[in-house]
Design brief:
Elements: H1 3-28, H2 36-44, H3 49-87, H4 92-122, H5 125-140
């Protein structure tokens, strides 16, 4: 395989893995809190001051966790790119790097779900019902497939 083609292949595969992880996380937390979920939490649930304080702290904590997990995912993608470049086939290094990338994506998904459930625990039962419907809608929306 020509060196230039090899680098293009590595770049394309790395981008595909990163895109898949990002897409998956977006399905759970639309636009990283930036739009639908943020609007739901702050505009439609009529949070008390105490709930707002707790939610703000949860969001701050998750932001730090998310930053660390994003870095872990980027590193696993770089390791995958290096393995692909080294082996130029699905060999033991590529397979191990793919597994590590999947672990990083899984860690991000688990942390995102933990955050969703932590926010939910702050809500009243009637707020939880609205929250649950919106999370289900976000996960099943055709825009997230």
């Amino acid at each position: 395989m020509a060196p230039a083609l090899r680098y293009v292949l590595v770049a394309v595969l790395s981008a595909a893995v990163a895109l898949a992880a990002s897409h998956f996380a977006r399905g759970l937390m639309p636009a990283r809190h930036g739009s639908e979920l943020h609007q739901l939490m702050h505009d439609r649930l009529d949070l008390t001051a105490e709930q707002q304080t707790k939610i703000d702290q949860l969001e701050k904590d998750f932001s730090n966790t998310r930053t660390a997990l994003d870095a872990q995912l980027r590193e696993s993608n770089m390791a995958l790119a290096r393995a692909i470049e080294a082996e130029q086939k699905i060999g033991p290094k590529v397979s191990a790097a793919v597994d590590a990338s999947h672990m990083a994506m899984g860690d991000l998904q688990k942390a995102t779900l933990a955050h969703v459930f932590a926010m939910r625990s702050v809500l009243t039962p009637s707020q939880q019902a609205i929250f649950d419907r919106e999370i289900a809608r976000a996960l099943t929306s055709p825009n997230n497939t």
